[in-house]
Amino acid sequence: MRYIPTTPLRSTLLALLLTLCLALPALAAQKEGLLLVAFGTSVPEAQPALTAIDKEFKAAFPHSPVVWAYTSSIIRAKLEKRGVHIGDVTAGLEELARQKVDVVRVQSLHVVAGEEFSEMERLLVSWLARHPDTFKAVYLGRPLLESRQDAEDVCRAVLSATEGKRKPGELLALMGHGQSHGRGDMVIEGMRSTLSFADNLAVLATVEGSRGFDQVLAAIKTSRASVIWLQPFMVVAGDHARNDLAGDEPDSWASQIRALGLTPRPVLTGLGELPGVRAVFVRHARDSRDDLLKQ
Ligand code: CO
Predict the structure, then answer these.
(1) Catalytic residues, which ones?
(2) What distance in angstroms lies between residue 114's CA and the mean position of ligand 1's atoms?
(3) What is the Cα–Cα distance from 44 to 42, expressed in whole angstroms?
(4) What is the CA(145)–ligand 1 centre distance, in A?
(5) How would you classify the pairing of strands 202-206 and 263-266?
(6) Which element (helix H / strand E) includes 116?
(7) Could you report the per-residue pLDDT of 39-88, keeping only the tens digit for each?
(8) The pLDDT of residue 180
């Protein structure tokens, strides 16, 4: 074989070309798939939020199959009885494997990285450890509230829901889920401060966790508002929104406000129904560099 002398530049270019030739077919053949993971809901009226999220992801990732998983086994069982089948995280991964997907984007539809998110992450990692060769990469998209930008985007989206309807001096009380044994609490604190900075008549409290309805009462006292708008700070306007927030039971937020002689105005819009919120989820799915296969 004749020795062909190469300059350093020419050999670099040759190497680059060779790398491209090898990498291009592999890139082109790579099929991506999405696994959207939500807590789930069995309340039919809460479905629009999840349907809107589904549409948003299908539009943003037109070439990727979209598979759903619900983390709540109680909700999955309830739906199964009605003939609606939605699997868990494992079933979702198996479905994407059946569809011959190479790269999986798992997108958490949780609000904060609390209990549900951690459990999902553990499930994913343990499944991948048992099936290391099924996919080439599995990216995990973080939940809704991770960064200051997320908090600001969500804040704008949330305030837009009552824009033009809420008059000056009227309070907006948001009901988040929260967690009784911490973890998500500090994220709620960050969101609370972003909200109150943007609108000093907006208050975020939670069903569980350290910021309960007493926070709404305190805000009512300082603002002297007589009209209190009530909005869920959860992805769907499901059971908590319809019962604990706006329900007729004496301990719902609406009933407690009414008992004070004030006017509650429930807006049963789940976060997933707000375009600005959906955009954050899509951004997280796109930006995720957290490959669970690289450990
Ligand atoms: Co709950």
Answers:
(1) 177
(2) 12
(3) 6
(4) 18
(5) unpaired
(6) helix 115-130
(7) 999 999 899 999 999 999 999 999 999 999 999 999 999 999 999 999 99
(8) 81
- Cα three-residue angle 104-143-158, rounded to 5 degrees: 130
Across-strand partners of 229? 172, 265
* 14 CA distance to ligand 1 middle (Å): 59
Residue 184: the pLDDT is: 87
Residues 6+ away with beta carbon under 8 Å from 153 = 276, 277, 279, 280
Span 104-114, pLDDT tens digits: 999 999 999 99
Look at residue 137 and give its three-state secondary structure: strand
Task: Give the chain's mean pLDDT.
Answer: 92
C-alpha of residue 282 to centroid of ligand 1, in Å: 25
CA of 242 to the centre of ligand 1 (A): 12
The length of the chain is: 295
Backbone CA torsion sign across 33, 38, 43, 49: negative
Token pair 């926070």 is at which residue? 215
What is the DSSP track for 147-175?
Answer: SHHHHHHHHHHHHHTTTTTSPTT-EEEEE
Cα(177) to ligand 1 centroid in Å equals 6
